[in-house]
Amino acid sequence: MFKALKIILTLALCAFILSASDCYSDYENDSKVWGYKPVYTNDLQEVFNVLPQQPLRRPGKIYVYQNKLFINEKSSGIHVYDNINPESPQYLYFVSIYGNNDISIKNGILYADQGPNLLTLDLNSINADSLRVSKQDGIFHTYGYSEALPPAEDVYYQCPDFDLGFVKSWELDSIYYRYACHN
Description:
The chain is an alpha+beta fold. It has a domain at 48-136: Thrombin, subunit H (Beta Barrel), CATH 2.40.10. 18% of the residues lie in helices and 43% in strands. The chain is built from two helices and 13 strands. A five-stranded antiparallel sheet has the order 2-6-5-4-3. It has a four-stranded mixed sheet with strand order 12-1-11-13. The radius of gyration is 25 Å and the shape is elongated. 22% of the residues are buried.
C-alpha cells in the first residue's frame, strides 16, 4: 500500500509539472510585445549609398587623409568633411554603409566593414561623381547583433537573421516575445 501511494504521488507530481510548464510555454510562445522588426535586403546599393548631411549620433574613429576628414558613424557609415581649413571643416556628404563599425585608411584606400563584408573605397575617386568601391563577401566571421541594432535603446526587437540579408532598416511593430531580443 505504501508503494502504491508513492507511485500515485509521483505520477501526480509529474502531471502537475508537465501541465504547469506547458501553460507557461504556451503563454511565452503566443504573447506579443511592442518592438522593432528588421527589414532585410541583399542589394548592395540599398546598404551603400552617398547621401546628404546626416547628424552625428554615434561617432567612432576619426581619420584625416590629405584635405579630407572622415568620421565613422557606428552601424551607419562615414561622414566626409572638406578639411582644407582644419579650424572650420565643411561637411561634404555621408557615405551610408549599413552595418559599418570600423574604418581604416592606408595608401589612399579606405577600408570599411559592412557586416561580414569588407568594402574598399578608392579615396582618389572621392571627388568624382561615383566612388570606386569593391566588396569582398564573408571576410569577418564575428558579425553579430551589435552591428545591426534598432534605432532606439532599451527596447525589444526581433533578433536579426543574417541569412536573410542585411538589415537595412527597422519598423516598429508587435513581435512575438519568443523571437525578441532586448538592448
